[in-house]
């Protein structure tokens, strides 16, 4: 999983209990994060590694919202090669992981990265876990790539679990961000994003496209009363179980 700084403890502990209850097979949990003394805090360092295209206007605006300097976006290709060419072989050698059984997971921009990796390197992972995914990034970029992927008749033995919190709809996000609506930096940020994103609607849309691909199993799940920040934790239990169900 991406965003190891934030999910490693929960992912490892949850997987242990799922294995204990025979709800998941023996699993090696690998998360990738950033050092505490990294030149950019993890909350913005991820912007560089998880995004497929450069968006300088968004970088600057998001930095203003957080009060932090942001690295340039659009370097997911480099990060993906690092995972595939360096992290995976090292883990396979150390822990005996089956090279054909890898799962790639992420939340928010990490969900964007996971699904884009399906299109960019479709043979690299067998399962994909994406929650609260930032499909608004240069929208409709990811949906166009999904259509192109689905049009390829090549059969693939792939499962894709997509999820979003119930409170990630455009209406709910507008309500959540209401206290910030008069702030200039937030107004600019929303303008650049094209308004309040509908992560719930986008999740269903992506699943509907992927379900049309040859031998791709896709599911969209909406998690009741979960926000953008909490949905990933609820989704981990549901997603790991579904992704490992016999097909």
In short:
The protein is an alpha/beta fold. It has one domain: Alpha/Beta hydrolase fold, catalytic domain (Rossmann fold), CATH 3.40.50. It is 49% helix and 11% strand.
Shape label = globular
The strand count comes to 4
CATH architecture: 3-Layer(aba) Sandwich
CATH topology annotation: Rossmann fold
Order of strands in the sheet with the most strands?
1-2-3-4
Assembly type of the chains comes to single chain
Cα radius of gyration in angstroms: 18 Å
Characterize the main sheet: 4 strands, parallel
Poorly predicted regions: none
Helical/strand content category: alpha/beta
Q: List the total number of helices.
A: 10
Distance between the termini: 23 Å
Fraction in beta strands? 5-15%
Order of helices and strands: HHHHEHEHEHHHEH
Mean pLDDT comes to: 95
In the residues, how many domains can be counted? 1
The H-level CATH homologous superfamily, spelled out, is Alpha/Beta hydrolase fold, catalytic domain
CATH class: Alpha Beta
**Helix percentage:** 40-55%
């Amino acid at each position: 999983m991406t965003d190891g700084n934030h999910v490693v403890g929960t992912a490892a502990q949850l997987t242990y209990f799922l294995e204990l209850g025979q709800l998941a097979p023996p699993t090696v949990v690998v998360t990738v994060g950033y050092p505490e003394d990294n030149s950019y805090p993890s909350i913005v360092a991820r912007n560089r590694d998880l995004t497929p295209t450069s968006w300088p206007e968004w970088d600057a605006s998001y930095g203003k919202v957080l009060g932090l300097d942001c690295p340039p976006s659009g370097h997911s290709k480099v990060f993906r090669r690092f995972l595939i060419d360096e992290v995976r072989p090292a883990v396979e050698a150390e822990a005996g992981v089956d090279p054909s059984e890898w799962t790639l997971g992420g939340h928010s921009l990490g969900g964007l990265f996971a699904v884009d990796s399906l299109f960019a390197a479709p043979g690299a992972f067998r399962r994909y876990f994406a929650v609260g995914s930032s499909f608004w990034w240069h929208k409709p970029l990811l949906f166009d790539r999904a259509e192109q992927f689905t049009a390829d008749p090549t059969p693939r033995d792939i499962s894709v679990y997509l999820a979003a919190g119930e409170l990630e709809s455009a209406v709910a996000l507008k309500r959540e961000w209401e206290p910030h609506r008069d702030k200039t930096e937030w107004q600019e940020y929303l303008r650049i994003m094209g308004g309040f994103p509908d992560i719930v609607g986008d999740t269903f849309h992506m699943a509907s496209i992927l379900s049309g691909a040859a031998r791709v199993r896709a599911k969209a799940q909406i998690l009741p009363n979960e926000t953008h920040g909490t949905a990933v934790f609820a989704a981990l239990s549901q997603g790991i179980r579904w992704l490992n169900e016999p097909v």
